[in-house]
Amino acid sequence: MLLIILPIMLKQLNTWVWTRITNTWQVCFGLFKVMIPALIVVKILEITGIFGPIARAFGPVMELANLPGEAGLAWVTGMLSNMYGGLVVSAGMVESLGLNTAQITTLGCMLLISHSLPVEITVAAKAGVKPWFLIPFRLITGLVFGIILGQFFKLTGLLQTTPVVLWSSPEQGAGLLSWGIGTGRSLLTVFVVVLIILAIMDILARIGVMQLLKKNLRPIFQPMGIGDEASSITVIGLILGLSYGGGIIIQEARKGSIPKRQVLSAVSFMSICHAVIEDTLLVGSLGVSAIAALPGRLVYSWIVMFLILMVLRRLPERIINRLA
């Protein structure tokens, strides 16, 4: 009996594995078409030195968050490149600008919300949410979070200590060959992670966990306009990052299985609150307060989305179609 059943099981397993690989390639192919051009544009901006003038224009804005104007360079670098680029510049400013823990927490939390815009905004656009909405949305929400934290720390006198900076990274401005190799490794990592995600999602769906997850998350997500259709994908983006959750939501949005209002809400939420484990650890090693970076960011994002939903509910469908 075992000799009969075993070949059938192996054939089914082989079919299941190749189906997951095929589905992963379909997700990543659409995602890579978005990511690669955006990464190239960012590299060109870095080579041409255009970050500096843009950063100087943000100087007066940073003062609203109780930060020196020079900190605008770190925020702009993170926005136009990625979290790592922003952290490199931030780490170098701690000593030179004499930033205290409150200020580095404020700057780190602004980076958590507003980073990697060229790549992540393009991914979100492919999912159906318009860049002209998401770009100011992420800029404003990042700045407002910084202002709230900066003024709170100023008024309360909390975290006025010297930050403990553990974070370090390779020198920025790597040559094209090193950049190309690093980018290739990153894309391969994305493929592997998406493959694992899709496999786990399929297994969890088969044993009923996904349905249970949707039920338990409904009270949290519904006030933000995220229904059952988009809840599991939102969890992926929340934990792992917009690139992973976004890649999958692109596929689902194109199928039409998620209503446009939910796509708008889910992508907006993932835009300002994603990769909560990885990014929190990264900024934590820069001396950022964990309370502000994790529960503070989650609560702030929930409140923002709740207020956004209040507006979206009053908008006619034709306006929603222009946004998503």
Q: What does this entry look like structurally?
A:
The chain is built from 16 helices and no strands. The mean pLDDT is 82. Helix 7 runs parallel beside helix 12. It has one domain. The chain has helices at residues 2-48, 51-57, 59-64, 72-80, 83-96, 101-113, 117-127, 131-156, 176-206, 209-221, 228-240, 242-255, 260-272, 276-284, 290-312, 317-323.
The percent range for helix content is over 70%
Shape label: globular
Strand % is under 5%
Q: Measured on Cα atoms, how large is the radius of gyration?
A: 21 Å
Please report the distance between the alpha carbons of the first and last residues.
Answer: 55 Å
Number of strands: 0
Domain module count: 1
Average per-residue pLDDT, rounded, comes to 82
Helix and strand composition category: mainly alpha
Please write the string of helix (H) and strand (E) elements: HHHHHHHHHHHHHHHH
Largest sheet: none
Tally of contiguous helical segments? 16
Give the oligomer, counting copies of the same chain as homo and different chains as hetero.
single chain
Low-confidence runs of at least 5 consecutive residues: none
